[in-house]
């Protein structure tokens, strides 16, 4: 008779996995237990959150973009071990700087954080007392020069550091705006118009020995933009990591002059009390941002562009079977969101529904489909359907849902 004690002694002297599988030890109840543990939970359903199909553009309120498989692999494969965050930021920064052909780089919690850290770096340098004190430095406030036409909602990231924004129009005004309090000059790349060119802006800033910073958060594609601005001479550059690079939504890139990047790191987590401490980036996001950038740079961008155009043709072909519906490919000139989308119009005497009504009906579905409404030169509303953020399995689904709505409205 084999007692429980003898059985345990025998098991302890044999390779566990091999003996258990070889002897048929696993019971069906154990397999069921394993199945329960590995079953995928649908947290959208569990929490009552409506899933969104993004037939629009990369917007933070729509959770940015979908992370690349390489990013998810990086996140999952690094989540099981701890890391020294100083070392990780340094090592990843070195690799990113090498990829982007600059002196220094770091991963931030989005482009807005990069703007806070870049400005803080320009104010404090490596001075520990200044790092400890901002945004409440004694004396007059530091000043950051911006073109008046470049003022925008995100420039609050600049004033968060305690700096004051000085508005200028044209090269002559910019020249006169520099004084002993000027710490930086900021260029908003997606501004509608500029009274000073990129090259002039950098030249003037360099002449006054003040760092120039360009916010190009949403300005890829084209991939060349990742290299364009350091070649012009900007000292600091930021891009969002969670838009078309398709890294973690809460990650961003800050890169450029090494001394400024090192100062930015001192103003950031994991240091315990600087202005950037609340903007920490976890280790998985840092690994994930590295993987996203590497994958993006290695991508066949011409092939991807053609795939987007093919998606537009597929949707357009299906929708133009509805009376009077016409589609045209629209290429946004950029610099932000410079990619193709589909613009739809129809005769509202034949299809009795407006683009705004279609847009709302799609939004109210489950899953919700988010499109846009744009106006053409004749002030006529058009339904804008983005294709670059759709999963491959969503292309025909979006076409079918729009066609269903339009078909029901045919007179």
Strand order of the largest sheet: 2-8-7-6-5-3-4
Estimate the helix proportion, in percent: 40-55%
Overall tally of domains: 2
Strand content: 15-25%
User: Would you tell me the overall average pLDDT?
Assistant: 91
Q: What is the fold named in CATH at topology level of the largest domain?
A: Aspartate Aminotransferase, domain 2
* Contiguous helical run count: 17
The CATH architecture of the largest domain can be named as 3-Layer(aba) Sandwich
- Assign an overall shape: globular
| CATH class designation of the largest domain | Alpha Beta
Largest sheet: 7 strands, mixed
Give the helix/strand class. alpha/beta
Distance between the termini: 85 Å
- Tally of strands: 13
CATH superfamily of the largest domain: Type I PLP-dependent aspartate aminotransferase-like (Major domain)
Low-pLDDT segments? 1-36
Radius of gyration: 27 Å
Task: Describe what is shown at a glance.
This protein has 411 residues and is an alpha/beta fold. It contains 17 helices and 13 strands. The protein folds into two domains: 82-298, Type I PLP-dependent aspartate aminotransferase-like (Major domain) (Aspartate Aminotransferase, domain 2, 3-Layer(aba) Sandwich); 301-408, Aspartate Aminotransferase, domain 1 (Alpha-Beta Complex).
């Amino acid at each position: 008779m084999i007692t429980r004690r003898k059985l345990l002694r025998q098991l302890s002297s044999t390779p566990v996995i091999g003996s258990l599988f070889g002897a048929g030890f696993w019971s069906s109840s154990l397999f069921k237990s394993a199945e329960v543990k590995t079953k995928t939970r649908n947290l959208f359903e569990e929490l009552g959150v409506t899933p969104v199909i993004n037939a629009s553009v990369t917007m933070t309120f729509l959770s940015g973009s979908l992370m690349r498989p390489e990013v998810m692999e990086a996140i999952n494969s690094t989540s099981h071990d701890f890391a020294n965050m100083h070392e990780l930021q340094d090592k990843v920064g070195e690799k990113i700087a090498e990829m982007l052909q600059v002196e220094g780089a770091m991963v931030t919690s989005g482009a807005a954080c990069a703007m806070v850290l870049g400005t803080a770096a320009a104010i404090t340098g490596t001075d520990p007392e200044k790092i400890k004190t901002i945004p409440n430095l004694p004396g007059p406030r530091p000043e950051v020069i911006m073109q008046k036409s470049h003022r925008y909602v995100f420039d609050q990231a600049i004033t968060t550091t305690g700096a004051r924004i000085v508005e200028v129009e044209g090269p002559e005004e910019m020249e006169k705006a520099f004084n002993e309090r000027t710490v930086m000059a900021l260029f908003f790349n997606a501004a509608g118009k500029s009274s000073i060119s990129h090259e002039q802006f950098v030249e003037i800033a360099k002449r006054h020995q003040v760092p120039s910073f360009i916010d190009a958060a949403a300005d890829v594609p084209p991939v060349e933009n990742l290299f364009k601005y350091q070649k012009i001479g900007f000292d600091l550059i930021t891009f969002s990591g969670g838009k078309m690079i398709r890294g973690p939504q809460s990650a961003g890139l800050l890169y450029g002059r090494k001394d400024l990047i090192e100062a930015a790191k001192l103003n950031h987590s994991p240091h315990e009390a600087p202005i950037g401490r609340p903007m920490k980036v976890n280790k998985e996001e840092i690994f994930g941002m590295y993987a996203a950038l590497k994958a993006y740079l290695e991508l066949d961008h011409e092939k991807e562009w053609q795939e987007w155009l093919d998606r537009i043709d597929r949707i357009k072909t299906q929708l133009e079977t509805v009376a009077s519906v016409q589609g045209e490919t629209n290429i946004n000139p950029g610099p932000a969101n410079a990619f193709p989308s589909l613009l739809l119009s129809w005769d509202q005497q034949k299809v009795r529904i407006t683009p705004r009504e279609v847009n709302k009906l799609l939004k109210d579905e489950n899953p919700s489909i988010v499109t846009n409404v744009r106006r053409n030169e004749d002030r006529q509303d058009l339904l804008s359907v983005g294709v670059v953020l759709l999963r491959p399995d969503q292309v025909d689904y979006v076409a079918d849902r729009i066609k269903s709505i339009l078909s029901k409205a045919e007179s």
